[in-house]
Queue: 2 jobs
Job 1
Amino acid sequence: MHFLEIKDFSKAQLRGILDSAVKRKNSRSGLAKGERDSDLPLKGKIVALVFERPSTRTRFSFEVGIRQLGGEVFTSSGGEMQLGRGETVADTARVLSRYVDAVMIRSKKRETLDEFASAATIPVINGLTNMTHPCQVVTDVMTLEENKGHLDKQHVAWVGDGNNVCASWIEAVGVLGGSLKVGCPLLLKPQKEFLDWADKHKAAVSVMTSPEEAVSDTDCVITDAWVSMHDEDVENRHNLLRAYQVNEALMKHAKKDALFMHCLPAHRNEEVTDAIMDGPHSVVFDEAENRIHAQKAILLSCFGKV
Ligand code: CP
C-alpha cells in the first residue's frame, strides 16, 4: 500500500499509524540509537530512498528508522540515476520494483510521484513534493498529541506561506478533526484544491490575513521557511511574509501553554526568532526526532504491519 497523501487514509488508519509510532518510540526507551527493535519487522526487506531535492531530516530519519526495523536501506539522488538523463519515471519505477521492497521518493513535482506510484508494484512513500509533505505532518500530529492529547480537541495556527506542509496539515485536520487557522498573505494562501477539499469534507479550516487573529487562542503555532526549495521569487516573498514572523509578541496571542513547531530547516530571525525557537513553547527538536518514529510506523503500514 502506498503512502502518498494524508487524505488517502481513513481516521482509523491514521490513528493506527500514530499509535504505532508512539508505541515504537516508547519501546526504544534506553536503547542505543543503532540497536534494532526486538521484533525486527522489516527483516529481509530493502528500501530505496530517492531524492530530487536536498534533505537532512527525511534522509537520515528514514535511514535510521529502516535500520532500527531490521531492514536494509540505500539512498540516491535523482541526478545520479538515469532518471536525470531522461529515463522515464515509469520505467525507473518498474526497475526499482524488481530490486527493492519499497521506495521513498522526494520529487520536484507531484506528477513525478504520481507517475512513479502508478507504475510501481511495491509501496511508494511521498517524502515531499511541491504540493504536500505528509510524512512531516504525521510527525507534527504525533508531536502535538504527545504534549496536548488528540488532535480533534486542538486548535492549530499555521502562520506564513500556505505551502506544501500547510496543505498536508489541512488534510490532517480534515481526516482527524481539530481546527486549523491559516494566517497568510492573500497571494500565498493554500492552493485552491486543498481549500476546496477542506470545504467538501467540512474540515474546520479557515484562512485569514491577520497573523494575530490566526494565532489567537490556539494550542499550537506552526510556521515554515518563507522560501521553499521550489520557490524563486525570494525578495517578493520576504516582503510579503515579514509581518508573519513568529516572535514573542505574536506568541502572546496564543494560549499560554501553546506549542511552537517548525518542520526545519529554520531560517532563524526570518520566519521565527531565536527566542521562540529556543524558548519554552518550542518542541522543534522533539518534532525532528519524531520523524524517525512516525516514518517507522508509516513504513510498517505500507507493509500491512500496522
Ligand atoms: N522537514 C524536512 O523535510 O526536512 P529535510 O528537508 O531536511 O528533509
Job 2
Amino acid sequence: MKFLVIGNGGRESAIANTIKRFHEDATIYVAPGNGGTDEKFINVPIKVEALNELADFAAKENIDLTVVGPEVPLVMGIVDVFNGRGLKVFGPNKECAQFEGSKHFTKQFLMRNDIPTARYASFTRDSVEACVAECKNFSLPVVVKADGLAAGKGVLICETYEDAEAGIRDIFSGKFGEAGEMIVLEEFLKGTEASLLCFVDGESIVPMETARDYKRALDNDEGLNTGGMGGFSPNPIITAEVKKNIETQILEPIINGFEKENLKFKGVLFIGLMIDGNSPKVLEFNVRFGDPETQSVLPRLKTDLVKIMNACIEGELASTPIIWDEKQSVTLVLASKGYPESSHKGDVITGLETLDANTILCHAGTKRVEDTIQTDGGRVLAITRLADSLEEARAQIYAEVEKIKFDGMQYRTDIAK
Ligand code: AMP
Ligand code: GLY
C-alpha cells in the first residue's frame, strides 16, 4: 500500500510512524516532511498549500490514502480537490473545516446546538468601536480572538480593558490579514484544559484516549504561547463523571447538530475543553490531529490506524472496534533557540542514535544535511515514552532527554509533573 502524509511536523512524523507500525511493507511519502521522515520514509518537496500539485502527485503515484496533518490545506479545501479527482483522502471537507477556520462559525454552531461554551460576541472590522464598547460588558480577564487562522497568535487574554482595546485595534489593523476580518470576544473560563481528539465518520463520533497539552513556553505555564511544549495521555482530569458529561453534553449534541445541519464531517475533530469541577465546556474545535497530542495518543493505539481512517471515510466507524493500550504516555517537545519569538536554524543535533529503543522519536523542525541532522526552526523534536504510570514515563523521558544535544535547545522540565 502507498500512503501520502501531508505536513512536516512532529504530528505528521507520529502519523507516518503509526501507519508503518501496522503496515511494515507500506511505502510512505511525506510532503514536505522533515529530517526524520527523510531518513525513514520518502520526502516529497511539495508545499502543504499546493493543493493541485499534491493531488497530481497522489494520482501519479497511485496513492491508496492521503492523510492531511495541518489545518491550512484543510481550510483551503484540499479534501474537496482530492475527492473531485477521485483520490482517497482523510480529513474534513472545506465546509466542515470552517470549524477551525472560523471561531465565529464554531461559536454559532455551539450556541444553536446548546453545547456548553464561553459567552461570546462577534464583530466585523467595520464595527471597531462597537467591539471596543462591548468588551467592557465582559468581566476581566476578557478573551479577544481573531476569527481565522493566526498560527496560534490570535488569542489574547486581557487583564485590563485598555489591553483589550489595544488588542482589538491591533487585530483589526490588518496584521493577521483575512484572519482578522472578524473578532470574537469571549468570557474567560476557569478550570483545567484537556484535549479530546475524536474520529468522526459523518454519522458517529468516537473519542480517542484523552490528552493534555502544555501551551506555554516555560515551566509553571509561564512565558509565551507556543504550538505545544509537551503532553501526556490519558488526562486524569477526565474522570468517569466528566467523561459521562462530555458524552451527553458535548459529543451527542455535536453529532445531532451535524445531522440537523447536514454537515458531513469526516476526519478528526479535536475538541479543546475547559474542565471546571465536573463541567466540561468547549474552548475551540480543530479539524485535525493535535500537535503534540498525537505524539502522546497514537503510540497507545492498538488498532490499525489505516483501518480506522478508512472506516471514517466509508461511514463505518460504529462497527469498527478501537482498542487502546492501558499504558500511559508522556511526550516532551524540544524547541530551537529563541522559540517561539524567533526561529534559529542550522544547529547540529547529536545523541539521537543513543536513545533507548523504547523511546519514540518524532522529528519536527529538522533537516538532513549530508550526514548530520540539523535544527530547522520552531519545535525540533518530540520524544515519547509509554509506561505503567505517568510518573514512570515522565522519569524515563527526562533521563532520555539528557542524551540529546543542540545549541540553544529548550524544553520544559514540568511536563506531567
Ligand atoms: P483557542 O485557539 O481558541 O483554543 O485559544 C488558545 C488558548 O487560549 C486555549 O488553549 C486556552 O488556553 C486559552 N483560551 C482560549 N479561550 C479561552 C477562554 N474563553 N477562557 C480561558 N482561556 C481561553
Ligand atoms: N496542541 C494544540 C494544537 O494542536 O492545536
